[in-house]
């Protein structure tokens, strides 16, 4: 049996940051865990160019090559999920396995369902009510909720944002609330101004080019990005384990923020993926 401990790399969602993985850091304190901040997040500069998944994956690849970790299990939430997939497609030598937490699989200029929206980033009350139920991209490819979301956090302290987060998300663990709030203070407001490109690939179809095991965590239909149809198509493309590469871990009754709403289920799926990656290393 292999004694190798595969490193774990964490890629966050839009308006989150490297601070948003407290449960994973605690769980895997005995192995190398690296959480990366995307450009325009966590205080990382935002270049004056389109914000694309390809660029995010290239940034991640450069960081991982500099760290010289070897192949890693890459965990991605939402935006981080498609970034992780792009990384596996363009820099496969860096990726031992993927864990995708409700990845942002856009279709036809819109998300699969009501997620990564005002509620997903913590807007509450009238602000959330004013957000589109199915967020669409605007003419420059930007999620329509992004500008109002960033504006809603402007000028607020971490504690003020956290207090609001506790009201809007009373079931989230406190360490998740604090990481989420910290992340909001590090978002570059220009992120809502530059063009975005989330649809350079058919993300489900592109799984045909992935050569490593994939764990897909999905949430309650209608409260998430990934639809049942997309999950079924992913299973068709990759094949279901143990003969295929896909392990599908549906988590009923929760929304887009699976690890925050159902931490035990999320960590159980992640534990299984880590064990498989260690055994294969």
TrEMBL record:
Key words, A-Z: Hydrolase
GO molecular function: hydrolase activity
AB hydrolase-1 domain residues: 8-269
Cellular component aspect of the GO annotation: membrane
EC number: 3.1.1.-
Domain of life, source organism: Bacteria
Name of the protein in question: Alpha/beta hydrolase
Gene source species: Cellulomonas hominis
Taxonomic lineage from the root: Bacteria, Bacillati, Actinomycetota, Actinomycetes, Micrococcales
